[in-house]
Each structure stands twice: as structure tokens, then as C-alpha cells.
Design a protein that fits this description.
By secondary structure, this protein is an alpha/beta fold. It contains 19 helices and nine strands. It is globular, with a radius of gyration of 27 Å. The structure holds adenosine-5'-diphosphate (ADP) and magnesium ion. It comes from Novacetimonas cocois.
């Protein structure tokens, strides 16, 4: 079946694409209506899921009608990768190990609740403290996470409550805590999303095994529940979590919880639960700063082995400010593209490859903005954009700002001139021509202007 499916895929997507994305895919076991496929990296897994997930499901279903779902896992070999340091699978509860990340691609309707023998979700081996880039916005949360990984259940740090917006590193830090503890081999760790917690709980009720579920949960040393906000409005599950929480904390076990808001802002969670959640250490992860975004991009670019010029990193850090996930996604796409076509990463290529992402982040640019950005770039005073000073130090940036105003706004030449200290429109024409000449003569200057243009471009 496998080789037939591979041949079909290759025929459909072409040799190049197949070799780039799909060749390294391995086939795993079939479990009832589900087949597991392996990919060597998280990035490939995500990519293949996004691009080919549905198609893979359909092909497998056509080949073996009983198969309705395809699971994509991160693993290096065609057999499930189980971390050697992990507690053995037969020690109940099966503690999480640095095993592959399992996420399902639903071909048809996802099954609502599934009973699985393992208690918790596996940890992503890529989310470690080493790969977490620390900066002002996340240093406190990072320090707390490290502290809990070193000495779980310390007074004052139990529970550890991590909160912050989407894509800022909450899950990464929780996995890092788990991996660190598992690596040390000291304790059993269970990590799962609040959603999974609920499904497990419901499944246990259905199969009349709630006692077993409770016992399993209460026998771990560290319980981590991700995205607790999911439990808002799920009263029964909240209740169950509250009891589990109390039982564990009373028994001196560590709890780590994440959510998108602070305990006091999680209205919709029961008061007594919110109170208890706020009792230990509450650490928030703030939105990224430009500096942190640069550091993260540098680290990820270095790890990829693809050379990404500093200008490109700077450009991305300016443009994609929403969260780390998007930033990472943009960089990954660039890197994939560079690998795929064997071309160096340049600003032009970036603009091309990330066209859609950048467009979504764009807005109309004004002459004032252009003047401000250009003045900042060359470190001159904003007032010099309209001053009479003629020394090259200020005249050149002023000309660039005029050139960019012509390029990026729909203002007429006289209008632009007026904004630059009531200069004549012929001055603007001269500036535009002069900048174009200089760009031809001096590649470094051209690159500066291009960078500014791309940053401002609407
Ligand atoms: P959250 O759970 O807060 O929504 P994640 O932990 O899933 O966010 O982070 C989203 C992505 O960004 C992940 O791939 C993660 O590795 C990466 N990431 C977030 N913060 C950092 C950081 N400080 N250093 C390195 N990678 C980060
Ligand atoms: Mg998360």
C-alpha cells in the first residue's frame, strides 16, 4: 500500500516537491481506523499536515477503506521513537517522555472522546530551556519555570501559573519543565491540554473508569495543564480538575497551569478554583519586543543552517510583531524556500515568499511616518526633514524621504515639497532622480533605501 501511495503522491505533486517534503515520511502502525505516519522534524510534520494532510487521508482511505484518519508524528525512524530516558511504558501511569508529538489530521469527523492507555500527551523534544530565547518580556516566566524544573513543589511556586497571549511561549516553557524533569529521571510528569483533560475525563465517565482516571492523575509528581481557559463553561470538568488540583497540592505534588489570562481575569472559572490558582506563583509573558524578536530570529536562523542576512531578520522583526509563532512561521517558510530552490535569502526573496503574510501586516503609510523612519535610520533630527540645512548628513536622508514619499504615497510633487519645509516641486524631482542615481552607484546605499521602503511599504 505504502509504495503505491508514494507513487501516487509523487505523480501528483511532482518529483521536486515530493523529494523536498514527503520523501522522508515513514509509515507506522494501523490502529483500527487510524494510520500513523512519521516525519523527522516538527517543521516537516506541520508542513506536510498543512499541505498534504487531506490528500494523505484520502489516498489511504482509497487504499484501505477502513482507514479514516491519518496521524502525523515527529519521529526519526519508521518505528515510534521512544526516548531512552523515559520511565518505562508499563509503569502506570505512563509518564510522558520526549516522545513524538502526536496530532491528528481528521479526515472525517474527529472522534469526540478517545480512551487511550497513556495518561498524558508526549512532550515535544524541541521545546526545551536551551531553545527558549530569553528577553525582557519573558525572563520572569522563564526564571519561574526553571526554578520549578529544578525544585518542584517548592513553597511559593506551587502552583506555577503561566499566562500570556497566543504564541508567546507558554506551551514551550511547560514542555521544557517536563523534559528537564524527565531527563533527570526524578519524577513522573504528566502534561496535557485542558481540552485533552476534559476528553479523558469524559471518556473515563463513559467507560465507567473514573476511579482509575483519578488514581492515575493523582499518582503523578508533576501535573501540567495547558490552556486552562478551555475549561470555561465546562463545569463538570472544572469541578474534577479542582479536586485533582487539591489532592495533588495537598500531597506535595507540583502543578503547572497555563492560560491566556491571569487567574483573576479568568471570569467563567469558578471562584474557588481561581483563588487556588493564584495562590502560588503567577508569571505573565508579555508581548515581544523588537529586541526579543531579533534574538529569536537569530537563534532560529542559526539552528536552521541557512544563512539569513541581518537585514532580512531586522525586516521580519519590524514587520511581524504579533507573536513568536507567526514570526517563526515566516522564517521557516523563508528557509524552506531557500532549501527548496537553493537560492540565497535576500530582501527581494523575502518580500516575494512572504507576500501574503506581509500584506496582512501592512497599512497605509504617511509622509510623516516616512520622515520619522528615515530620520531614525540615519540618526538625524526629525526637524531637519523641513529645515534649510544643506549639509549632506541631513540633505541625503531628506532626499531619501522625498523619494520614498513619491514611491509609497499618492501625494503629488508639490504636496510632498510642502511637507518638507515648503520646498519647490522641482526640488522633489531632483531628490528622486539623485536617490535613483546613488542607488545605482552604491549598492550599500541602495540596500538601505530598499530596507526602508520595505519596512514602510503599504
Ligand atoms: P503559546 O503556548 O503561548 O501559545 P507556544 O509555546 O506554542 O506559545 O509558542 C509558539 C511557538 O513559538 C513555538 O514554536 C515556540 O517554540 C516558539 N517560541 C515562543 N517563545 C519563544 C522563545 N522565547 N524562544 C524561542 N521560541 C519561542
Ligand atoms: Mg500553547
Amino acid at each position: 500500500h505504502w509504495s503505491r501511495i508514494c507513487a501516487r503522491l509523487k505523480a501528483e505533486v511532482g518529483e521536486v516537491e515530493y523529494n523536498t517534503w514527503l520523501r522522508q515520511m515513514g509509515v507506522g502502525p494501523v490502529d483500527e481506523d487510524e494510520i500513523t505516519l512519521y516525519l523527522p522534524t516538527r517543521f516537516l510534520r506541520d508542513w506536510v499536515r498543512g499541505q498534504y494532510g487531506d490528500r494523505l487521508g484520502a489516498l489511504w482511505h482509497a487504499e484501505i477503506p477502513a482507514i479514516r484518519r491519518v496521524e502525523l508524528q515527529v519521529a526519526r525512524s519508521a518505528s515510534p521513537a521512544v526516548d531512552g530516558d523515559a520511565p518505562s511504558a508499563d509503569s502506570a501511569p505512563a509518564a510522558t517522555a520526549a516522545a513524538p508529538v502526536v496530532e491528528a489530521v481528521a479526515v472525517e469527523e474527529p472522534r469526540a472522546a478517545e480512551v487511550r492507555s497513556d495518561l498524558a500527551a508526549p512532550l515535544d523534544p524541541r521545546f526545551t530551556f536551551d531553545t527558549f530565547v530569553v528577553g525582557k518580556p519573558n525572563e520572569f516566566a522563564y526564571a519561574c519555570a526553571r526554578r520549578v524544573a529544578e525544585r518542584p513543589s517548592s513553597p511559593g511556586f506551587n502552583p506555577l501559573f503561566l499566562y500570556g497571549g497566543v504564541g508567546l511561549g507558554k506551551t514551550h516553557l511547560m514542555h521544557a519543565i517536563g523534559s528537564e524533569l524527565v531527563r533527570e529521571g526524578r519524577v513522573s510528569v504528566a502534561y496535557m491540554s485542558a481540552e485533552k483533560f476534559m476528553y479523558r475525563f469524559i471518556a473515563a465517565i463513559r467507560s465507567q473508569s473514573t476511579m482509575e482516571f483519578k488514581e492515575q492523575l493523582r499518582s503523578v509528581d508533576v501535573l501540567m495543564i495547558d490552556d486552562l481557559q478551555f475549561l470555561i463553561g465546562k463545569d463538570n470538568t472544572q469541578e474534577e480538575f479542582f479536586h485533582t488540583f487539591n489532592a495533588l497540592v495537598d500531597a506535595g505534588r507540583q502543578i503547572v497551569v497555563s492560560a491566556d489570562k491571569s487567574p483573576s481575569d479568568l471570569s467563567g472559572l469558578e471562584d474557588r478554583l481561581r483563588t487556588r490558582l493564584g495562590c502560588g506563583m503567577v508569571a505573565d509573558i508579555h508581548a515581544t519586543t523588537f529586541e526579543l524578536r531579533i534574538s529569536i530570529l537569530e537563534a532560529k536562523a542559526a539552528a536552521s543552517g541557512v544563512e539569513v542576512p541581518a537585514k532580512v531578520l531586522e525586516f521580519l522583526a519590524h514587520k511581524i510583531t504579533s507573536n513568536v509563532r507567526e514570526l517563526e512561521g515566516a522564517l521557516n517558510r523563508l528557509i524552506a524556500h531557500a532549501n527548496l530552490f537553493g537560492r540565497p535569502v535576500t530582501l527581494e526573496a523575502t518580500q516575494d515568499v512572504l507576500h501574503d503574510i506581509l500584506k496582512a501586516n501592512n497599512r497605509r503609510v504617511t509622509i510623516e511616518e516616512i520622515q520619522r523612519k528615515v530620520a531614525e535610520h540615519w540618526n538625524i533630527r526629525l526637524t531637519d526633514m523641513s529645515s534649510a540645512r544643506r549639509s549632506t548628513v541631513v540633505a541625503r536622508p531628506r532626499q531619501v524621504a522625498m523619494y520614498l514619499s513619491k514611491q509609497l504615497t499618492s501625494r503629488s510633487l508639490p504636496e510632498i515639497g510642502r511637507k518638507f519645509g515648503n520646498r519647490d516641486h522641482t526640488t522633489v524631482i531632483y531628490a528622486v532622480r539623485r536617490v535613483m542615481e546613488l542607488m545605482e552607484q552604491d549598492p550599500a546605499f541602495a540596500e538601505d533605501v530598499e530596507l526602508l521602503r520595505r519596512m514602510l511599504e503599504s
